[in-house]
Structure formats: C-alpha cells, structure tokens
Amino acid sequence: MTRGRWITLLLIISVTLNLTSVGAVVGISFMRPDVRPINPDVSTRWLYRALGEENRESLRPIFEQRREELGSLRGDIRDAQRAFEAGLNNQAFETERVSETLAEVRRTHEAYQRASHEHMVTVLARLTPEQRQRVARHLYRRGPRQAPPRRPHEYGNLPREER
Q1: CA-CA distance, 26 to 24, in Å (whole number)?
Q2: 3-state DSSP call for residue 153?
Q3: What is the DSSP-derived secondary structure letter of residue 85?
C-alpha cells in the first residue's frame, strides 16, 4: 500500500471512532430516565460558595455534619420522582396511585427544604454582620448567573411555540 492509502485508511478509522464516541455519549444521555435533576440553588451549596475561602474552613464541620442528612433527603426526592414517573408511564393509568406519588414528591421536597433552611440558619447565626452582608450580596446579585446545563428533551426547555 502506498503512503496516500495508509493516510486515507487512518483518516477513515479516526472519523469512525470519533462518530462512534459522539453517538455513544448522545445515546447514553437520552437513555437516562427523564427525572428532572434537583436544582443546586435550592440547597445550601450557594451559601458555601458565598462564604469565601477564608470562612469556609471554619464552617466546614457544620456543612459536613449536614451533608449526609441533606444527601439522604435528595435521594428521597429522586425516589419519589421516579415513582411518579413510573405511575405516569404505566399502561393502565391509576389516578389514586399517581396522586399518592405526587403527595410523596411534595412531602420529600418539604422535608428537604425544612432541613436546608435549618442548616442555613445555623450557618448564618455563626457569621459576623459583614459576612452576612457578603452572603446577601451573593444571593441577590444582579446580572447573568451560570445556569445548569439543560437537556433538550425536557418539557421546560422547549421553545414557547412548541409547548
């Protein structure tokens, strides 16, 4: 084989591998269950980021203490959302069952929000007035914020004319 044919063959193999990789990534992203991810701004991660590096170390034990509890509650939310999705996708729609799963979704979100707010109050109580002002500026800042990545097949991400 000549040098030109080897280069052509390597180019074809390279393009094939790249297309296979991209196809696998896209395929995996669409095969995941369609459960909306929990918005990280609902949790207290924003508070941790707003504290600044110098304050984070002193408050790290409080965050670590609550991490397991909040993580467990986030897991409960995901389980409730999956149960609702299963009821929604069931061939025989069971009104009572779907209503129960939605009540569980509400209950788990409420429990998570309650624990998150308690954690926030615990952290804010340990801050100086200047540190609380810094947190308030971070929370109420104007301008663009980095939005979480969106999956194109979620209802909320469709252009208005397609809703």
Answers
A1: 6
A2: coil
A3: H
CA angle, 13 as apex, 24 and 11 as ends, to 5°? 125
Angle of the 53-89 helix axis to the 95-125 helix axis, nearest 10: 180
Which pTM does this prediction carry? 0.55
Looking at residue 160, its pLDDT comes to: 47
Q: How far apart are the C-alpha atoms of 151 and 30, rounded to whole Å? A: 9
Q: Which amino acid is at 161?
A: E
Residues 79-103 have pLDDT tens digits of 999 999 888 888 888 889 889 999 9
Give the pLDDT confidence of 91-139 residue by residue, as tens digits: 888 889 889 999 999 999 999 999 988 888 888 888 889 888 888 887 7
Domains of the chain listed by start with CATH number: 39-137 (1.20.120)
Q: Compute the distance between CA of residue 130 and CA of residue 152 in angstroms, rounded to an integer.
A: 41
The size of the chain, in residues, is 163
- Assess contact for 101 and 79: CB atoms under 8 A: no
Cα separation of the two ends of the chain? 57
